Amino acid sequence: MEKTMQKIGLACVVLIGIIGSIVFFKKRSSSVTGKPRWTIGILQTATHPALDDVRKGFMQVLEEKLGKDIAFVVRNGEGTIGNIHAIAQQFHARDSIDAIFAVATPAVQAIASLEKKKPIFIAAVTAPEKLGIMNPKGNICGTSDMTNVEQQIESMRLLLPSLKTVSILFSPSEINSVVVAEKMRDVLLKNGITSHPVAIITQAEISTAVISALSKSDALLAPTDNVVASAITLIADLAHKARKPLIVSDNTLVKFGALMAQGVNYFESGKQTGLIAYEVLLHNKAPYQIPIMFSESKEVFINRQVLQDLGLTIPAALKDRSIVVENERRS
Q: Which of 25, 63, 83, 270 is in Cβ range 3.0-4.6 Å of 54 for a Cys bridge?
């Protein structure tokens, strides 16, 4: 009987040792060998200061919180739809990719059309609900870069109190831009300011459209728009020659000749999306349980040179939240 008990005891010790080895091996696979627990594929629509900031903020938060347990595969579509869809196909097909971070609308649309299981985190998208990608039990969550249009117009009125008419520049092919342009029109109307929509379809018609808009308005206003961003130096130069202010919604464009912007801080938006990803990865939250988050747009970015050239000063009501930037030329 005693020998039997000894055998049972020995068997228990061996079993405990085996279980301990398994547990140790599992821990070792992520912490000792340096292999990450999760790999996120990052699909960025194009190279752009705002989109770069989103990516950097997202990666910074997750690297700080997860260390060696997180890895990234970063790909950039460089603004080409074919490239974006090819990268989306790769991320969808690769079992080693545990989740996907899609930056800006084209990337979001491409991956959302393919991937229905892996979590998709999104950012730099103004109106995701308008894209037909949000489902009650879906796999998408993240942040919107919808500008607080009411705050933006109020700041514009403080800086330009005599403003009567505004031309809104936007690309009709960008649903995000169309949504914000319509919102701008409504808010301007409530504030007694007349607006003229100016739809820009191609790069070739920018000069003609902007010159026409400047001839019939006191200022130019633009939502976050890829066409406007790509031609910001040209648009700013035309506004400067006409001695009319250009107000944009992307803070990073002010240094290229716009007078003012009160848009989303994209680095902070990326960090916010990173925190959402952390909840999904580490705490097993389902993406559909997390609503799309919005970022604050408190700071007003003002171009010092343009401000001086137009003979303007920053009013007291804006001084505490104004960030004055220097003018620089875009290559």
A: 270
Residue 238 · residue 258 · CB < 8 Å: no
Task: Please give the single-letter amino acid code of residue 4.
Answer: T
User: Contact, 273 vs 142, CB < 8 A?
Assistant: yes
Please give the pLDDT value at position 236. Answer: 97
Mean pLDDT of 119-144: 93
Domain encompassing residue 219: 149-263+299-325
Alpha-carbon dihedral sign for residues 44, 45, 47, 49: negative
Question: What's the Cα-to-Cα distance from 120 to each of 6, 35, 134, 141, 319, rounded to whole Å?
Answer: 55, 22, 11, 7, 39
- Distance, first Cα to last Cα, the chain: 88
> Are residues 226 and 83 both part of a single domain?
no
Please spell the DSSP secondary structure of 131-151, one letter per residue.
GT---TT-SEEEEE----HHH
In this structure, what are the phi and psi dihedrals at residue 236, rounded to the nearest 5 degrees? Answer: -65, -40
Residue of 107, 101, 95, 148 lying closest to 120 (CA atoms): 101
Provide the pLDDT for residue 16: 38
CATH number for the domain harbouring residue 256? 3.40.50.2300
Determine, yes or no, domain membership for 6: no
- Would you state the structure tokens that stand for residue 69, as one six-digit string? 């347990």
Long-range contacts of 109-117 (CB under 8 A, 24+ apart): 109/133, 110/43, 110/81, 110/84, 110/85, 111/43, 112/140, 113/88, 114/88, 114/89, 115/88, 115/91, 115/139
Backbone torsion region of residue 302, taken as left when φ is above 0, otherwise alpha when ψ lies between -120 and 50, otherwise beta: beta
pTM of the model: 0.77
